[in-house]
Write a structure and sequence with these properties.
The chain is α+β, with helices and mostly antiparallel strands and about 70 residues long. Helix content is about 35%, strand content about 15%.
Length: about 70
């Protein structure tokens, strides 16, 4: 039987510039809908980048909010 568990890369080893809403919510320990509300209201600790109706959450800002140092 296949596992449905997703493997999430730790923020200190993440090389992408932006994460999708579900991955960002996982790191912030919030529901994806909470991040969507932050984006809509523009009142959250992080502002997403909008591209063709999709939200991209900057890894640099996620690290800042969570106080995670970048990998060397």
């Amino acid at each position: 039987m296949a596992s449905t568990e997703k493997h999430v890369i730790p923020l200190d080893r993440e090389h992408r510039s932006n994460l999708g809403t579900a991955e960002a919510a996982y790191h912030l320990n919030r529901r994806p809908q909470t991040l969507r509300l932050w984006a809509m209201r523009e009142d959250g600790p992080i502002r997403p980048i909008r591209v063709n109706g999709r939200l991209g959450w900057p890894v640099v800002e996620l690290r800042r909010v969570l106080q995670v140092p970048a990998a060397a």
